[in-house]
Amino acid sequence: MPHFLNTSADGFEAAFAALLSMKREDAPDVDAAVANIIADVRARGDQAVIELTAKFDRLNLTTETLAFSEAEIEAECAKVGAEDRVALEMAAERIRAYHERQMPSDARWTDAFGAELGWRWGPVSAAGLYVPGGLASYPSSVLMNAIPAKVAGVERLVIACPTPGGAVNPLVLLAARLSGVDTVYRIGGAQAIAAMAYGTATIRPVDKITGPGNAYVAAAKRRVFGRVGIDMIAGPSEILVIADRDNDPDWIALDLLSQAEHDESAQSILVTDDADFGQAVAAAVDKRLETLERRAIAGASWRDYGAVIVVRDLAEAADLSNRVAPEHLELCVADPEALSALTIHAGAIFLGHWTPEAIGDYVGGPNHVLPTARSARFSSGLSVMDFLKRTTLARMTPAALAAIGPAAERLAVSESLEAHGLSVRARLDRLNEGGA
Amino acid sequence: MPHFLNTSADGFEAAFAALLSMKREDAPDVDAAVANIIADVRARGDQAVIELTAKFDRLNLTTETLAFSEAEIEAECAKVGAEDRVALEMAAERIRAYHERQMPSDARWTDAFGAELGWRWGPVSAAGLYVPGGLASYPSSVLMNAIPAKVAGVERLVIACPTPGGAVNPLVLLAARLSGVDTVYRIGGAQAIAAMAYGTATIRPVDKITGPGNAYVAAAKRRVFGRVGIDMIAGPSEILVIADRDNDPDWIALDLLSQAEHDESAQSILVTDDADFGQAVAAAVDKRLETLERRAIAGASWRDYGAVIVVRDLAEAADLSNRVAPEHLELCVADPEALSALTIHAGAIFLGHWTPEAIGDYVGGPNHVLPTARSARFSSGLSVMDFLKRTTLARMTPAALAAIGPAAERLAVSESLEAHGLSVRARLDRLNEGGA
Q1: Using one digit for the tens of pLDDT, what is the confidence trace for A371-406?
Q2: Which of A243, A308, A430, B46 suits a disulfide with A332, CB 3.0-4.6 Å?
Q3: Is B83 in the A-facing interface, judged by CB distances under 8 Å?
Q4: Which position among A76, A261, A264, A328 bears the catalytic label?
Q5: For residue A56, what are the contacts with CB-CB under 8 A and spacing of at least 6?
Q6: Could B411 and A376 be called an inter-chain contact, meaning their C-beta atoms sit closer than 8 Å?
Q7: Residue of chain B with shortest Cα separation from A104
Q8: CATH number for the A31-104+124-230 domain, one of 3.40.50.1980, 3.40.50.720, 3.40.50.12780, 3.40.47.40?
Q9: Residue B286 burial (CB count, 10 A)
């Protein structure tokens, strides 16, 4: 049974607050183990990576086989059936087209004093993508991480993907190839993050590391942050669906389940202005849970964290959604645009009856790496911006310095930073001597 | 004596690598103390903040005096002299004009299948700025943090600034007023970060915390990250100056010293293609160090971390600069634009002889909060983007879903995510029945 809440009922605020503050993730504390692994890789390089891979992935590598060869990739890609290949190509093409529009512009202008100001964007030189092995080895995540990097102009793009016992998902390698990835290493865990951050004799270091992973990978990313850039640390997936009565309860049930099936810690919330419809959706979820392949996972998620919230009207639904700040927000109402204008905190919004969230996971075009755990209040999904950095530019003329330099000197003096002031003053004195 | 290096000399690579990997910051490990402070503030709210402020800042507050009153701010601002006020107003105006140009655009388009795609930007609802107390209580930093937040559209903007023994810098309060800050709390340290992140009965929580601080503040920001957004953790300041012989050695010396005087851990590097000029600058630095107010700090920084590197030509200078990825880069050469095109990693570039870095600290317009410790390889200075987040938008029509839905279903099946596939399939089936 999911949580049933009603904004008109006594005790709603307390129940909603409890829902909001529910701790869904109890990550094991692996920080000490990760610190040791990173230190080992920094000290012993390839040898440490090879030994740790033998230990954790039951795979014996050499410096020659740390990365897949071109021939190996070719052979794996050839195993992918035509239908899967076409689907993956469509996804890649649509993700690329969407992200190409995100490229920001450089700027340069001259102000009233003649000072030239501006900025320019440039890509990070090298990026590393972590791709989990085993069941959660998703080709779609390869596309979602690698394509924005290539669109941004990243020159060298590598993947670290563990292959426990040597098993690899051919679709992951095909996705890597379609995205323009240069090298795929068969390594994983904290040792892979350490190798990409610090480099080894065989693995060149990168400047930015993105991609999901288990508790070890997350802890390692936190530890190497500063040495390299990292993307967000993703938590369990979430969806909030706002739906009025004019929906097929089964469609909404499937949308809720498509988050719940990811993880027992995932959270699916339905907000509706019709109590009967809410009950109908809950019944439809139960019915689907009878047969769903991943019913153990989805059922646990729905039971522990699922919720049906009945509201007075859609404006109240938007208010609640803003307090949740969901990763995914579906607006299954007659006027989704109007409701969208009221929902100010969400990672991604899916508008109308014909936009199930799963479209966004694969082929919609927008990125599926999105802020979880209420962080949509202050952060955004993955984009080309994550692989770019901005350099600001300033160029004074003698006249511009004469106009604004005295104010800089004054503020430097007020902050007791004498050399700051003198560096301006020396130039102003030259100008006063007519020496420009 | 700073480090003298020459790219033509034997052992240059080793010496340069040593310079690059020099550990300049030895932050004390205050994490356990900070964890306790945060837990205390979460548990006891205002009372904990008041007790910790009495203990660390020797200041007795009540819930009524946690924040400055309007009358108190008014009275402090009245103490600021006309010249300082005018300088601060010019700085605020120029910073605002620069950052207004950074506002990104929303986008919405319809693709060939009729799918509507896009994104929109929105501000974080509330931001908190940390402003150190005492000597490093810089009004310019208030402007550099607060103005981008207001330009982004942040509704509620608060400052936490400790006032040890009750002492406050009137310029800080004037800068807060000029920037549109709503509330200034007289609290600091980890307790201020905790109060802004989690809220107390008196202090409402914010969504994003920015601003510099000591080791306690930095550790607290790391700990509350996730609950709120944070900006970068800034390290000691750095400058790299590329200068040819056609410069006044004293100007370049002052530019180097304007970083060195910040902190004994600051780093100033001159790269020149003329060995004699390099010696002349080093001599000019020594001469200025005889009289500079902060000569103890600047002298230690220059002695321990300063460097003069002689290169064969300016292209080699750009290569070295890219390996350093300096926070500040000054290009004092005949054609700074051409050299700028070669320098791909830098937080901010100052072009030509008339643009001392100090201009950028105060009145240039670009932000002075910039990536340190080589992180300009993958990150940018503070900007309006730090106070905005992006929501992606997707809206399928029945025809668009018919066109791209089957690929999504296929990929869902390949990833063993059945409910994902079914949420698409249920809608496609309706279409096939003619039910759109």
Answers
A1: 999 999 999 999 999 999 999 999 999 999 999 999
A2: A243
A3: yes
A4: A328
A5: A162, A188, A189, A191
A6: no
A7: B104
A8: 3.40.50.1980
A9: 14
